[in-house]
């Protein structure tokens, strides 16, 4: 139910803040998405969409954290092995 | 697809599995709350790569599964009306009510429609002004902004033939119910990433402190789950109990403020019965009095709980992480997705459906990675 999918915001329409919508591309498939909860979203941003509403803007700076954490973990474990 | 494919990398998953196995020194039980996470774990075999001493308990985060039977019965009753168009997410159609489900109503000629978004139902209401268009508003906090938006828009546009049958539930009270249960064996939690995209994670901080459990906000791709588990194990092994955020690319501590404001505008916190679990105080959302005109229970009469029917469905124990789906005697024999005894076998996020779909008895205990010695 809480399935939400990341997609790229390709256009924005609607001046009224209560009606702001955008077209979001999910691997090339375009869907109309309600942007009322993401007033800061700009064309080119990746957003997370759930049942037709954008609920979050993806922070590209944090996107590689999952690989950085793994590297840190491996380095810490190797350091312990070396000192043992 | 960007932000999806890279988090399904096999080598990184195996490296995480090795790193976690080296870290674990004793048995731990960690619960992933969200049914979407359960499906990722079972589909990609995340649990099968973990050391045997690490147990993943599957949580209650499947709104379809916990919607009380009296609301399914009410939905069936409304959908059977000749003047109604009943709209729902697809998952709800085969959830068994006391006598039958919404799909049966549709098969008998009822106008039951599957929609992708509650906002689609407003268009249907405008196209059919002489019909009563009712949306089954189920979900956790993630879905609440869209459902609130639909009701707020209906009010703004003065739609008189639109209403919602609300069965909204909240995650933190369910976490507290599990932690305070004498049966509890969960020592750490993976919190549901998208719920936290909306609500943030400050609500979990007092729970982590009071019950001395680590809670890691976690995403939905396999590598997200591996990292969430690694962070949780790191805390458990070092005796820490804090809220951490694995899913920082999509979750901020304060959450999505405009979405929270929209939820507060339309909904208020109410007590809610969870199917298979029982009543949990302050665990649901109901419409505020200012939006009562859009309440399907006001328009068509309230849902009334009948006598408890004895069933061999053990979904309550499955939803609280006490029992694994395949440990239920009815699993895959008298209970299948085609003929379900309970909702977790129906929903695409139900733990029983995940085990049925991706895994059968012979592979359930496969644990190729041994714990670190």
Overall description:
With 84 residues, chain A is an alpha+beta fold. Chain A has a single domain (5-83), classed as SH3 type barrels (Roll). Chain A has one helix at residues 65-83, and strands spanning 5-13, 21-26, 29-34, 46-50, 53-57. A 5-stranded antiparallel β-sheet of chain A has the order 3-2-1-4-5, with no helix packed on it. The model of chain A has no long low-confidence stretch (mean pLDDT 92). Chain B is built from 15 helices and 11 strands. Chain B has helices spanning 10-23, 35-44, 63-66, 69-79, 102-107, 118-127, 144-156, 171-179, 193-199, 204-211, 222-238, 257-266, 296-300, 315-319, 351-358; strands spanning 28-34, 54-61, 84-88, 112-114, 132-139, 162-169, 188-192, 215-218, 243-245, 267-274, 278-287. In chain B, helix 1 (10-23) runs parallel beside helix 11 (222-238) and helix 6 (118-127) packs parallel to helix 7 (144-156). In chain B, helix 7 links the parallel strand 5 (132-139) and strand 6. In chain B, the strands form 2 sheets. Chain B has a 6-stranded mixed β-sheet with strand order 4-3-5-6-11-10, with helices on both faces. Chain B has a 5-stranded parallel β-sheet with strand order 2-1-7-8-9. Chain B is globular, with a radius of gyration of 21 Å. Residues 366-373 of chain B have low confidence and may be disordered. Chain B has 3 domains: 5-62 and 173-245, Rossmann fold; 65-171 and 255-300, Rossmann fold (3-Layer(aba) Sandwich), CATH 3.40.50.11740; 315-363, no CATH class. Chains A and B meet through strand 1, strand 4, strand 5 and helix 1 of A and helix 1, helix 6, helix 7, helix 9 and helix 11 of B.
Layout of strands and helices, then pairs:
The complex is a heterodimer of chains A (84) and B (373).
Chain A: E1 5-13, E2 21-26, E3 29-34, E4 46-50, E5 53-57, H1 65-83
Chain B: H1 10-23, E1 28-34, H2 35-44, E2 54-61, H3 63-66, H4 69-79, E3 84-88, H5 102-107, E4 112-114, H6 118-127, E5 132-139, H7 144-156, E6 162-169, H8 171-179, E7 188-192, H9 193-199, H10 204-211, E8 215-218, H11 222-238, E9 243-245, H12 257-266, E10 267-274, E11 278-287, H13 296-300, H14 315-319, H15 351-358
Parallel strand pairs in B: 1-2, 1-7, 3-4, 3-5, 5-6, 7-8, 8-9
Antiparallel strand pairs in B: 6-11, 10-11
């Amino acid at each position: 139910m809480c399935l939400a999918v990341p997609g790229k915001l390709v256009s924005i329409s609607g001046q009224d803040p209560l009606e702001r919508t955008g077209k979001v591309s999910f691997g090339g498939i375009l869907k109309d998405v309600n942007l009322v909860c993401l007033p800061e979203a700009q064309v080119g941003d990746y957003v997370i969409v759930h049942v037709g509403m954008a609920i979050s803007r993806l922070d590209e700076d944090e996107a590689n954290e999952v690989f950085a954490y793994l590297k840190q973990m491996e380095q810490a474990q190797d350091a312990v092995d070396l000192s043992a | 697809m960007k932000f999806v494919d890279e988090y399904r990398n096999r080598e990184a998953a195996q490296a995480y599995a090795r790193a976690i196995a080296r870290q674990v020194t004793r048995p731990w039980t960690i619960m992933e709350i969200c049914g979407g996470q359960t499906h990722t774990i079972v589909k990609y075999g995340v649990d099968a790569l973990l050391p045997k001493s690490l147990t993943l308990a599957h949580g209650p985060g499947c709104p379809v599964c916990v919607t009380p039977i009296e609301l399914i019965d009410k939905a069936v009753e409304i959908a059977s009306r000749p003047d109604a168009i009943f709209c729902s997410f697809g998952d709800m159609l085969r959830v068994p009510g006391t006598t039958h489900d919404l799909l049966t109503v549709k098969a008998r000629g009822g106008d039951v429609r599957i929609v992708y978004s509650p906002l689609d139902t407003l268009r249907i209401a405008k196209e059919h002004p002489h019909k009563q268009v009712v949306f089954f508003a189920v979900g956790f906090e993630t879905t609440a902004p869209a459902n609130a938006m639909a009701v707020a828009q209906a009010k703004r546009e003065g739609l008189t033939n639109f209403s919602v049958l609300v069965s909204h539930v909240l995650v933190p009270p369910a976490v507290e119910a599990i932690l305070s249960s004498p049966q509890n064996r969960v020592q750490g939690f993976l919190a549901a990433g998208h719920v936290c995209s909306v609500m943030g994670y400050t609500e979990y901080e007092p729970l982590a402190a009071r019950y001395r459990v680590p809670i890691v906000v976690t995403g939905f791709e396999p590598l997200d789950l591996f990292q969430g588990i690694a962070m949780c194990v790191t805390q458990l092994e070092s005796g820490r109990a804090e809220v951490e955020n694995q899913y920082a690319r999509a979750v901020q501590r304060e959450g999505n403020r405009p979405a929270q404001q929209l939820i507060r505008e339309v909904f208020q916190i109410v007590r809610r019965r969870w199917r298979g679990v029982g009543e949990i105080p302050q665990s649901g959302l109901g419409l505020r009095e200012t939006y009562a005109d859009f309440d399907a229970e006001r328009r068509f009469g309230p849902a009334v709980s009948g006598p408890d029917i004895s069933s061999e469905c053990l979904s309550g124990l499955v939803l609280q992480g006490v029992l694994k789906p395949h440990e239920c005697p009815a699993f895959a024999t008298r209970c299948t997705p085609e003929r379900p005894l309970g909702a977790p076998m129906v929903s695409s996020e139900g733990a029983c459906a995940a085990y049925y779909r991706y895994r059968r008895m012979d592979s359930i205990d496969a644990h190729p990675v041994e714990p670190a010695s």
